[in-house]
Amino acid sequence: MSAVVEARGVRKEYGGLVAVEDLTFAVERGQILGVLGPNGAGKTSAIRVLTTIFAPTRGTFAVAGIPNTRPADIRQRIGVLPESAGYPERLTGEEYLRYHARLFGLGSRARAPLPSHCSRKPVCSRAPAPQSALTVEECGSGSASRGPSSMSRRCCF
């Protein structure tokens, strides 16, 4: 597989329900892929498989040349910002950030209390912060799934 994103015969089943059947495509560098279809067509399941949230029932895929047999490596190379995060309202911004830190392999560092010096710094320190970045303090205590959608999305970002 040499495309930026490539899937071959990907299938995802939940019990006896087939959500994704024979997903096969290739996206070359510079191309944009749109995923369209009616409710229940398998779009969300396909994205969850390709982002390694769920394992495929069968088939293979690669993202940035990394095979699906190395999900942690794929997660370090991608980012997904859905229209709706879909997390329970009880999840605070801080809990949301810690969940994703663990998902992306930060392990025990994600469980430790946030250092006091982080409370005023942009949430993401790996890339230049956009002017509208929120601080950990702003995301920390409020619900990640309630409130103005721009704030929720900025916490998710």
Salient structural properties:
157 residues; alpha+beta; 4-stranded antiparallel sheet; Rossmann fold; globular; 26% helix; 2 domains
In short:
The protein has 157 residues and is an alpha+beta fold. The chain has helices at 43-50, 71-75, 93-103, 108-111, 136-140, 149-156; strands at 5-14, 17-27, 58-63, 66-67. It is 26% helix and 18% strand.
Structural write-up:
With 157 residues, the chain is α+β, with helices and mostly antiparallel strands. It contains six helices and four strands. A hairpin with a 2-residue loop joins β3 and β4. The two termini are 30 Å apart.
What is the secondary structure topology, with strand pairs?
Blueprint: E1 5-14, E2 17-27, H1 43-50, E3 58-63, E4 66-67, H2 71-75, H3 93-103, H4 108-111, H5 136-140, H6 149-156
Antiparallel strand pairs: 1-2, 1-3, 3-4
Number of helices: 6
CATH level-3 fold name of the largest domain: Rossmann fold
Order of helices and strands: EEHEEHHHHH
Mean pLDDT: 74
Tell how many strands the DSSP assignment holds: 4
Largest sheet: 4 strands, antiparallel
The second-level CATH architecture of the largest domain is 3-Layer(aba) Sandwich
Report the principal-axis shape.
globular
Q: What's the CATH class of the largest domain, please?
A: Alpha Beta
Strand content: 15-25%
Kindly provide the radius of gyration, computed on alpha-carbon positions and rounded to a whole number of angstroms: 17 Å
Number of domains: 2
Strand-pairing-aware structural class: alpha+beta
Low-confidence stretches: 110-133
Please identify which CATH superfamily of the largest domain we are dealing with.
Answer: P-loop containing nucleotide triphosphate hydrolases
Helix content: 25-40%
Strand order, sheet with most strands: 2-1-3-4
